[in-house]
Specification:
Elements (H helix, E strand, L loop, with lengths): L6 E6 L5 E2 L14 E5 L1 H7 L2 H5 L29 E3 L1 H7 L4 E5 L10 H14 L4 E5 L3 H13 L2 E7 L4 H8 L4 E5 L3 H14 L3 E2 L5 H4 L4 H10 L7 E5 L4 H15 L9 E7 L4 H8 L25 H10 L4 E4 L1 H15 L5 H15 L9 E5 L7 H4 L13 H9 L2 H4 L2
Parallel strand pairs: 5-13, 6-7, 6-9, 7-8, 10-11, 10-13, 11-12
Antiparallel strand pairs: 1-2, 1-3, 4-5
Keywords: Lyase, Pyridoxal phosphate
Enzyme class: lyase
GO molecular function: L-serine ammonia-lyase activity; threonine deaminase activity; threonine synthase activity
Length: about 425
Amino acid sequence: MQAKQCFVELRCKECGRAYPKEAIHVCELDFGPLEAVYDYQAIRSCLSRRSLAARPPSMWKYREFLPLEGDPVVGLHVGFTPLVRARRLGEALGIRELYIKNDTVNHPTLSFKDRVVAVALSRAKELGLSTVACASTGNLANSLAANAASAGFQSYVLIPADLERSKVMSSLIYGARVIGIRGPYDQVNRLCSEIAGKYSWGFVNINLRPYYAEGSKTMGFEIVEQLGWSLPTHTVIPMASGSLLTKIAKAYRELVQTGLVEEKRFAVHGAQAAGCSPITEAFRRGSDLIRPVPQPSTIAKSLAIGSPADGYYAVRTIRETGGAAEAASDEEILHGIELLAETEGIFAETAGGVTVACAQKLAKAGRLSGPGPVVLCITAHGLKTPDALEPRLPEPPVIAPSLREFDALVAVDGEALWT
């Protein structure tokens, strides 16, 4: 892949101090997070809609907007997942022009985390690292384990010990060293920060975070291209750390800055589970202060980050774009999963149920009104969290291989048999 080098440096989001392109993630002066910076004039001079359309359909179409110095070497087929026109779900939610950005079919682990891991591990190769690791609520663990295996890294995955068994298995199968930690995600992450300070490993969401987080932008780039190079009016995005929301908004702004789309108003909206909604609560209070949730209590474990690293920036981005934030109860989350599946044939994990449920609340409150498309970001497949739904689903009736028994079954109120 021939691409111009446009990644310039890392820079503190608070004080603006420049840093070299190394495995570092916080400013030594004010502890602000570091973010990748690009030469947008160079991007403008070498990219056009036509040139992007001619490239293979993967997240690497947007290589110039990503923090690498050479060609990517991990996750070459990640991304460019479908943008589905969701007419039946739109009718149910009262949204006229609704789309689903469907990362449940992302490669290789059916989650948007494949995007961020592909960037982080490609950069880890450039930095000469041989061992990679992460703190995870599940989806990141799966993606790190799979992509590390394909790229020849040794990998360590640290997770809360009560994580869904299906997600644990989906990390173990790739040969990752999986370690359960007694405690919520924030305690896992704190331990990983200590480990990263002692071992020369690449923790994708710690010392490689400035590179890792940029991979989320590709979801935003794809949405705009798939809408015919037009910004959506509203985008509803699930929030754990808050990074995905801030990076999708950054992608929209970068496309405007480089002349690839016309500038127009867009709003990004955040969705959280009620049992762990520190970003939403800060938004509702009209505050920038994120009050940590010490013991998250929600079936949406992939979103259960009580002290979100990008919470402050997520609240700020929501407000700057005129968006809003909502939270959904466990019952509403399960209903959201079922509604998406029954109307559009898309099976999402619990985070997807959060997005649908919160979109329903936002629509009812009139926050998703106005002309133009509304996009819901569905970030991972439902096979990752089957346990959450199992108690709600009926046992199928069992009959002999007999047409008479089938006729008798159907003759009863058939609808009642499957409800």
